[in-house]
Amino acid sequence: MVQELEFSQRLRLAIPSLDLYVSSRTQRQYVDDVCSDAIAIAWQKRGKIASQESGQANDPLVPFLILTARNLIRNLERKISTSNRHLKDLLPGDSPSAEAVVLEEHNLNSALHKLKPKDRELLLLLAWHDLSISEIAKVLGMSKANVSVRLNRARNRLNEILQELTREGH
User: Fold this and answer.
1) Cα dihedral 76/27/133/3 (nearest 10)
2) N or C: which end of the chain has fewer CB within 10 A?
3) What pTM was estimated for this model as a whole?
4) Residues of the chain by 3-state class (helix, strand, coil), percent to 5
5) How far apart are CA 87 and CA 67, in angstroms?
6) Tens-place pLDDT, residues 146-166
């Protein structure tokens, strides 16, 4: 009972990060369902998540929830695209993300959109969602070294694009 209460408190603290991630990846009409499903899965696997805690400085719950939400969103996208090919405008890639709306008038927004989707996702997980390299590695199923290398390359590409936009006067 005490463990369930502690897990509930950790979930309450993690929900804003989960909501922010899901809101930036899918349309508003799907956010509540994806978040609810991710929380339900976390609750079902709370024993496994709790066992991962030993020796970790950071709570593994947020990366677990984001990874789960990422998979749920991918499943949702597959379901939408296979059930009705005419609903492509519902896919997050076709509509501006929350980050794009916020940064719309800035060069950073233009530069982010010129990046490859994988580079953009890495940078946003780090900067927007405030995940550590090890947490990003868990979410993406990669090694920390690979994440570090890809982040370095993505930052360099972003800087190159920003310099180019600055020279063009955008």
Assistant:
1) -70
2) N
3) 0.57
4) 80, 0, 20
5) 25
6) 999 999 999 999 888 888 877
